[in-house]
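Subject: design request, 260 residues
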């Protein structure tokens, strides 16, 4: 698995798309720091970009890599190598290369700007951790989609649909439910529904750490009572970890049964 991981990782970081992904975050964070001259404002702006872009790139890149490497995968399957090792190695190669691009693209400008001498270093680390989690989560979901659908057009279609569902449609349905049932106590429902969307969960974690939850009104107070505590933070990161583990578990099960 480590050999496959090493090959996939170095193959991907040499790809021009990895350079484009890295340069996008490098230029964006540099421009934001230059224009805002404020670390907190730059982190908030980057949050809105990371929350939308990282899941999209993770999903599309994961599906694209799987379909492009099908012949290589079939060659590996003909060898005495466990299927679990093959697909875990490829998944980790994709997820780690995407995470490295985000980490370096955001980290270099902030480090040069004086992040380590600022009291916002912990908030920035939360942003990086959330971006890495989202890269792993949506790469795992992408491999599940690609393994389930041999047709490339269907695979890319389901990948875009998944991103739209979690990034846009879910929030709309969530707000409609809150408005429709506003006369009922919705504290537990709000917390529970947030756990089913890693994008929303990641956004709330960063907003609370930046101490701007007051902008969210009553819902923000509910979130702060739970997510603002140590237990709430641990539960949140535990749920994000489950969002990685469960798709990986399903990916391995599907790969072991699939006829290639």
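Subject: RE: design request

Done. Sequence follows.
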């Amino acid at each position: 698995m480590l050999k496959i991981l090493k090959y996939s990782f170095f193959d991907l970081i040499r790809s021009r798309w990895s350079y484009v992904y890295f340069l996008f975050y490098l230029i964006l964070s540099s421009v934001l720091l230059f224009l805002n001259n404020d670390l907190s404002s730059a982190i908030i702006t980057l949050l809105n970009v990371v929350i939308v872009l990282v899941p999209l790139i993770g999903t599309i890149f994961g599906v694209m890599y799987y379909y492009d490497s099908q012949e290589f995968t079939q060659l590996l399957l003909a060898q005495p190598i466990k299927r679990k090792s093959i697909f875990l190695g490829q998944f980790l190669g994709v997820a780690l290369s995407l995470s490295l691009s985000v980490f370096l693209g955001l980290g270099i400008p902030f480090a040069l700007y004086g992040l380590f001498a600022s009291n916002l270093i912990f908030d920035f680390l939360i942003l990086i951790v959330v971006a890495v989690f989202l890269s792993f989560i949506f790469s795992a979901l992408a491999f599940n989609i690609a393994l389930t659908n041999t047709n490339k057009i269907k695979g890319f279609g389901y990948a875009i649909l998944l991103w739209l569902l979690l990034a846009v449609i879910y929030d709309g349905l969530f707000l409609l439910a809150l408005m429709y049932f506003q006369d009922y106590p919705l504290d537990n429902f709000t917390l529970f529904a947030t756990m089913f969307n890693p994008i929303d969960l990641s956004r709330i974690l960063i907003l609370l750490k930046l101490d701007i939850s007051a902008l969210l009104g009553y819902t923000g107070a509910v979130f702060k009572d739970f997510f603002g505590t140590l237990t709430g933070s641990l539960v949140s990161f535990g749920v994000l970890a489950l969002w990685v583990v469960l798709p990986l578990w399903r990916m391995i099960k599907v790969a072991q049964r699939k006829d290639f």
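Residues 2-156+172-257 form one domain.
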